[in-house]
Write a structure and sequence with these properties.
This protein is mostly beta strands. It is built from 2 helices and 23 strands. Among the domains are: 76 residues, no CATH class; 82 residues, Pectate Lyase C-like (3 Solenoid). It starts with a helix and ends with a strand.
Length: 520
């Protein structure tokens, strides 16, 4: 069978679009062959450089024209998409064009087999496009679909989602031709990455031709949480206790497990305990010494940024590396316990008893150290093309890098709690008693020492800036380049500011990585 006859048969069987549908006119693929009137090569890419359409003799419709690039020697059936379309329509003619590319793909799946192709008029399509295997997209058509010129009738596929165009699990041959794919410029502070074309588990199925792919901008990293008020279980040192006949020193201040500084105990007072009648009044007796104050806890160091700027991928999504949090401040040392007052023994005189010295006051607890701030989250990455276990053909494609998102700000450190000033808990004054004609007295208990203030927590490190890698290959992915393929790098995200606070500030985050192409 001759090529004209074969094309005619394909037109009649497969439903090639006809002139009555208003689709004939010039386009830049699939031109007329040489002067002998025969089709040249059968690949749909030869013929008149001006884009003269293929006109197929058809007894039923002599002006039948193929609006899409021919596949071999047959003309696929188009589904029409236009920004002025209506998704409730069939998409089978220009007058019945749908408005969204995804709806066009769904309509194309109702054809065939084989599936229809989706032809797209110039304009901006703000939707996350989910490719389906075997359904190809062709952009660059005029508003009435009478001609195709991707440069004149630019089709931009973009989305507010983190992935603009998604190809997942493609097995059958699928093509994207004559469009611009623009990754989202994310303005949130959630650390999401932006992907222009995201391809996963699609081996040797996808071809991208005559297309521009631009990476967007990653989101700002998540701010680090500030440090929190901590509970450390600080307790005060016990005051000294007198006995017959003597007194004890108070306890030494503690810092709830942290290093201790200050908070020494007060010594017990002198006692007067003879076997004969004691000295009169309070002679021979002294009060207990006060405990000394506890010292303040040390401030916690600020967090340090990460040195790993390229990050890693988990399930096809980029994950930056966190810096370190600020460390907590150390707990303040509690005050020392007061010593007990001296005891007066008077029982040998006139049958009187013994006056026990007053108990020393408990030392006040030290304050707990403040919590350190969390590190800022990594900024989102910017990737024009991501291939995860996928083989893709790039044919005359320009791939431009984007901008990594800024790292998140580190959380501020929390100030430490003040030490307690309650120094008289459990403290007792002197005891007195008259025995015979004489008033006798024991010693006062000493005051406890005040607690030291807890140290402030350090600020968290600033987040690393988002990586900007124009073309990423994960696993066994392979890129085959044909024609003029240009891949240019973008710019890395700046690091986030380190957390502040009353203590040591966290360090600023490092800038992200930048590369034109990289395998992970």
């Amino acid at each position: 069978m001759g090529r004209h006859a074969l094309l005619l048969a394909s037109t009649l069987v497969l439903g090639c679009a006809s002139a009555t549908e208003g689709i004939y006119g010039k386009h830049d693929l699939g031109g007329v062959g040489g002067g002998d009137g025969n089709l040249d090569g059968g690949n749909g890419y030869t013929g008149d450089d001006q884009g003269t359409p293929v006109t197929v003799p058809d007894l039923a419709n002599p002006l039948a024209t193929c609006i899409v690039p021919m596949i071999g020697e047959w003309c696929p059936t188009p589904i029409y998409v236009s920004t002025t379309g209506n998704d409730s329509l069939s998409g089978s003619t220009p007058a019945n064009a749908v408005q969204h590319v995804n709806i066009g793909i769904i309509r194309a799946l109702t054809c065939g087999p084989p599936s229809c192709v989706v032809v797209i008029a110039g304009g901006n399509y703000d939707e996350q496009v989910l490719l389906h295997e075997g359904v190809s997209l062709y952009g660059g058509y005029s508003s009435d679909f009478s001609s195709r010129d991707p440069a004149m009738n630019n089709v931009t596929l973009t989305s507010k989602e983190d992935r603009a165009v998604v190809a997942d699990g493609l097995v059958l041959a699928t093509r994207i031709d004559g469009v611009t794919i623009q990754g989202a410029n994310l303005t949130t502070s959630d650390g999401r990455s932006s992907y222009g074309l995201w391809v996963s588990n699609s081996h040797s199925a996808l071809t991208v031709a005559g297309t521009t792919i631009k990476a967007g901008q990653g989101a700002r990293g998540v701010p680090g949480n500030p440090g929190v008020v901590r509970s450390c279980g600080a307790v005060g040192a016990s005051g000294g206790t007198a006995y017959d006949c003597g007194g004890s020193t108070g306890g030494f201040g503690t810092a709830a497990g942290d290093p201790v500084s200050g908070g020494t105990a007060g010594t017990g007072g002198s006692s007067n305990c003879p076997d004969a009648c004691p000295l009169v009044g309070s002679d021979g007796i002294s009060d207990g010494d006060d405990g000394t104050p506890g010292n303040n806890g040390m401030q916690g160091p600020g967090g340090a940024p990460t040195g790993e700027i390229f990050g890693s991928f988990v399930n096809g999504h980029w994950k930056g590396t966190d810096g370190s949090p600020g460390e907590r401040g150390l707990n303040g040392t509690g005050g020392g316990g007061g010593g007990s007052g001296g005891t007066k023994r008077i029982r040998v005189c006139f049958g009187c008893g013994t006056l026990i010295g007053g108990r020393g006051g408990d030392g006040a607890p030290g304050g707990c150290g403040g919590g350190g701030g969390d590190p800022g989250g990594p900024g989102g990455g910017a990737f024009a093309v991501l291939l995860d276990s996928s083989d893709v053909v790039l044919d005359t494609v320009t791939v431009s890098g984007g901008h990594g998102g800024p790292g998140g700000t580190g959380g501020d450190g929390k100030d430490g709690q003040g030490g307690s000033t309650s120094v008289d808990n459990g403290r007792q004054d002197e005891s007195s008693s008259k025995c015979g004609l004489i008033n006798y007295h024991s010693g006062h208990g000493g005051h406890g020492g005040v607690g030291g203030k807890g140290g402030a927590g350090g600020g968290g490190a600033g987040g690393v800036g988002g990586a900007s890698v124009t073309l990423v290959r994960l696993g066994s992915s392979l890129v085959t380049k044909s024609g003029n393929v240009q891949v240019t790098q973008g710019s890395a995200g700046p690091g986030g500011a380190g957390g502040k606070g009353p203590g040591t500030a966290g360090q600023d985050g490092t800038a992200g990585a930048v590369a034109a192409e990289r395998s992970y």
